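Hello Y.,

Per our agreement to keep a running log of every chain we model this quarter, I'm adding this entry. I've kept the format consistent with earlier entries: sequence first, then predicted structure.
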Amino acid sequence: MGPVYKIAVIQLHPKPMRIEANYAKAAQFIEDAAIKGAQLAVLPEYHLTSWVPDDPNFSDLCGQWELYLNKYRALALENNICIVPGTIVEDHEVAETKEHILINVAYFIDNKGEILGRYQKKNLWHPERNHLTSSMDDPHDVIQTPIGPVGLLICWDLAFPEAFRELISGGAKIIIIPTFWTLTDCSEYGLSVNPRSEALLLESMVTARAFENTCAVVFVNAGGPVGSSKSNCAGQSKVAVPFLGALGEETKDTNEEGMSIVDLDMRHVEEAEKNYKVREDLARDDWYYVYRHGLKRGKEKL
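Predicted structure for the entry above:
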């Protein structure tokens, strides 16, 4: 038998530039999750500001990142719950050039309010590249947490299997992905063929990543207003596990704001590895594939 963890998947609708109002709503969801016994609460990417980088005040709000990070630390301690506060966009000054850059960061905060790890988004979605700085070739680190070894990824990282492979090779059993994914992220051609193409992508890819990596995937996307049929938010926040697929009845099939609380039974992960032996193969000395850029394995010529 594996441990069972209760995880709150919070599909928040972030209002553009309403940082305090968005935080207040997020805190309400987290407090409710703690009352219901959740051990971990996860929010979406850009949940404090939404994604409006061309707004002249966007960078100023990002300068408040440490204030809100500390608010989440206090909230975690007060409610005895671990929190991944989606992502927080941070404004930093580069010492050498005095230039200001924006980075998109996810944190894992434990139930004592301590920061156990952080991850800066690596694979930037194309429109983000004029605004954000990537973590480039920094490694994907595994974080030891009260719910076991965890990896953090962000949104478009989902499209890169190499990121998952690096994390599970390092021992991660749960991979958490705060996301801001919309239905209109698809091209004009794609939308003409299937207006819900991005929803199909998420339905397919999140569950596939859980199976092919014998891990649990906690995917938390932004949602739209409750009762709105015109929102472009893709939603579909869920916990995906091998054998069962997507869990999270209140959010996995909708794009409206809401919260699912999922019982994540880690036995599914352990039994999947016994069955598929993905991690076992990755650990072999003679394994065929290399996942890090620039890393080469020498082989004798036959």
